[in-house]
Amino acid sequence: MRLGARFIMAIDIDEQDVAYLLSMAEMPEVDSISPMQGGWANTNVLLTLVDGSNVVLKAWDANTVEEVGRVIQRHAHLDAHGIPTPVPLELSSGNRHVERKGVAWALVPHYEGGLLGSDTDSLRSLGEVQARMHLIPIDDFFPDVYTMGFEFFKRVFALAEERDAWSPFLDLLRREAASLEPRIPHDLPSGILHGDLFPDNVIGSGGEVAAILDLEEAWIGPLAFDLVMSFVGFGWDDSEPLERRWRALLEGYESVRPLTEVEWSALPHLNRYATLSIAAWRYWKHVMSRHDPNLAERYLEMVDRLDVPLPFLEAHS
Question: In the chain, how many domains are there?
Fold first, then answer.
């Protein structure tokens, strides 16, 4: 086995961890282990087994064991309704995850390909798959509160107050939230949203979506919010928003589910909300929660976007 005594990532993974999970799934021994691209939370590594097959070992160190159970239910729900997403393998215990070192662990099918690109075909495919996901039935294991949204902002404000750690960004976020929340209609068409459709959460191959990953932020909310969140994740080239990427996303989406007039009217507000949500999460994660000097300014990428006009989000044609 080409594996050192320990593979250090967000959580330490050693030979005993790997052997234990593989034995629980009655799978061959591991030959090699390598880190996987993408992700800012939890630990994912690729296991190549002695028979040449691959499987992903995932340790949910950023989620409680109870919450992981609900996340796995979400993946199974999407899979049952034809949405491509990895469902963890069933273990000898009958469960799809196991608690070890205080966190949940699972073995997840490996999809060939890389992170989904931002070319026209890939974004059309993403829009189409996203629209199909929005039409499946809702279920209890999807919350109706967004983990990176307005309620999250309030918790961040409370933490800043407790620590006396207010900053220009938090002042901006507080003003923006107070102005933005009343502008978003409460009667927008709603359903299951991914909540964080950025490139590191979508596997693609040959211009098509192969799998939607990581449903930790999934929730029941306004469908159009998810579409603009995809644009926040895929639609920019550095500091430039690309209309052709928005058009590709929209074309794929509306081939399955056309937007309503009220959704079109709300798009600019929803896009601003999505942008602020990512900025707030990055600020909380890399500045307030676990300060990382290499990532502490990542939130500014989103802040800078707030002043960039997006006329094509308002052009209904």
Answer: 2
